[in-house]
């Protein structure tokens, strides 16, 4: 990849004690958000880009920690001097969303009212709640309007939601591998993942922290299922095919095919650090996401409220949020005469393509961002 | 005569488009025409392109560009969303000729179509000499040409009549980009290398 890494970075923490009223009717009386920034905010405070994370992401987008050189940000390949999110031009902000498990207030945080982890009592958060919380972080940083809000997948949905909720605060929205709302199939996959967690005997109704255990089996299954939906059939075929770990069938239920080995490894790794309650919350945020609901399902009417310019991108092999789903957003923007460009990128990595370092994909994002006037 | 950006049809197209109009350019390439129209006519423009490198170039040019395949129609565009829909030197590359013309006049009030005229005398002479024509306006060999439809001015006008499309204006250019006087139709068909039409639906 061209350009350079941002190098060693540090996380920061902000405390907010103004209550946040949530879409679910719940209220968070106070909360913390952890975030990272790269580059410098210019004097006019006009060069800030908010990068929103997807289901399992967090605030550590780019660079590494001085004491953990191998802990590289999840979208490091796109951020840094000379990279599309050029830190010589832009001030990049990433945060861990509410309900997360990487430092921001979430189900594993202590509930000040009880002195115990929130667990099942943590309120359901919606994408719009995240946007409101992110807006408060923007206030704290002195950012009136973002040069761009961007993200892939669930992160793209936040960028879309920003453009609707705070039209005057978003000059550009970059929505990658997203959809205007989930399909029945998308929700079905999420529900199977949730059922894996909810039916794990170690789940304890969400209060597993008190039992000094974690629903590792359920979380592992949820991640294995999710992972299948992030990859393309072609890519799995190329990567694993029907390769066996040993040369012959063993006629048993242990790991035999390489794809099994890979999925189990991914499941184990994820279940080792991710919080199951956060996983449940994130999938519900996805399921509930549907900005057009405020307009009786008319997305064109919803997008009439936007003022931003848009870059929408999808990937040909993404069967989770197909190009057709991105085109629904494009059509609603076009119907309102908005400035919008749409790229359908031919990459073989399914939904996960949005994280890949591809010259054309990054070229498109780079070209779009270079034209942003500060 | 010098022409805008080396494209004699661009000046003619620009002259038909009024400031502030909403323009859709199908097969917009790197967005050169739209950029010209935005800068000189103050239009609001969008392009449609299939090719990755053109998508990148158009975005680099600051043009709104939608990646898509004209053969599959213009589903993402609403009825009568544009004042002008431009199809510049692209009709001969589209298999669904009638489909795209109908789509253009569904999403736009007016269609602007330019295409190379296969009946241009030099093209005819080339065929008489036994070789497929290669010219300024047909710059390809037969084996690498993106063109899939081969037609003349008169063919196109017959199709418009069959489809009930109204030809509001027509300009015909020779290979140097000079206007061919609108005299006898057969003569124009013989002398013109590139034709530019302004179409609407019949009232």
What are the main properties of this structure?
heterodimer; A: 374 residues; alpha/beta; eight-stranded mixed sheet; globular; B: alpha/beta; seven-stranded mixed sheet; 7 helices; 32% helix
Structure description:
- The complex is a heterodimer of chains A (374) and B (203).
- In chain A, 33% of the residues lie in helices and 16% in strands.
- Chain A has ten helices and 14 strands.
- The N and C termini of chain B lie far apart (37 Å).
- Chains A and B meet through helix 9, strand 14 and helix 10 of A and helix 3 and strand 3 of B.
From the helix content, strand content and strand pairing of chain B, which structural class follows? alpha/beta
Content-based structural category of chain A? alpha/beta
Quickly count the helices of chain B.
Answer: 7
> Between the first and last Cα atoms of chain B, what is the distance in angstroms?
37 Å
Q: What composes the largest sheet of chain B?
A: 7 strands, mixed
Gyration radius of chain A, rounded: 20 Å
SSE string of chain B, helices as H and strands as E: HEHEHEEHEHHEHE
Could you tell me the strand content of chain A as a percent range?
Answer: 15-25%
Counting copies of identical and different chains, the oligomeric state is: heterodimer
Number of separate helices of chain A: 10
Could you tell me the mean pLDDT of chain A? 97
Low-confidence stretches of chain A: none
* SS elements, strand count of chain A: 14
Tell me the overall shape of chain B.
globular
- What level of helicity do the residues of chain A show? 25-40%
